[in-house]
Amino acid sequence: MADDARGSFTVSLGYYSAEGDRNGALRRLVRAEDPELLRPPQVDAFHAGHLGEGLKALGHVELDDNDIVANLWYAFRDEHHSVDVVVFASTGDLVRLGQVMPDIDALVHGIKVRADDEDGWWAGVTDDIPANADAKSDAASDAGGS
């Protein structure tokens, strides 16, 4: 984050069993024809590394108190694992969304679907290494110890 005072920005991730026509499912997942939106969302093709081609959409809704909220969706179909992947962010701070959108794009680009029985980059990594082991080692080296 370029500005620590702004705080974090929530992005949600979900997946569903892939069903029906790919294009129709992705358009539904990004709410391309949702009548509750103020106007049809801007829907664009989006390529995301391992997820391949999908959709990215930006739409706006008006809340009961007349506040406008921006909703950003990404949707992809992973044919190999038979799942549809959705990434979603929502905020009333439209300027902030514009600021963090490149970071969200990068996050989405790094997503990879993996089944529990598949080896990933973490294969063979054990979780018995203390979280601060490197910090102690670095501190000892800095102090001239070992």
Tell me what the structure shows.
This protein is α+β, with helices and mostly antiparallel strands and 146 residues long. The chain is built from three helices and five strands, in the order βαββββαα. It has helices spanning 22-29, 94-109, 133-142, and strands spanning 12-17, 42-48, 52-62, 68-78, 83-91. The protein starts with 11 loop residues before the first strand and ends with a helix. Mean pLDDT is 81; it is low at 125-146.
In short, what is this structure?
This protein is α+β, with helices and mostly antiparallel strands and 146 residues long. Helices cover 23% and strands 30% of the residues.
Strands of the largest sheet, in order across it?
A: 1-5-4-3-2
Rg over C-alpha atoms, rounded to the nearest angstrom: 20 Å
Q: How much is the average pLDDT?
A: 81
**Tell me, what's the shape?**
globular
Report strand %.
Answer: 25-35%
Enumerate how many helices there are, as a single number.
3
Kindly report how far apart the N and C termini lie.
35 Å
For the secondary structure, the number of strands is: 5
Q: Secondary-structure element sequence?
A: EHEEEEHH
Q: Report helical residue fraction.
A: 10-25%
Contiguous uncertain segments of 5+ residues: 125-146
What structural class should be given to the helix and strand makeup?
Answer: alpha+beta
Largest sheet features: 5 strands, antiparallel
List keywords for this structure.
single chain, alpha+beta, five-stranded antiparallel β-sheet, 5 strands, disordered C terminus
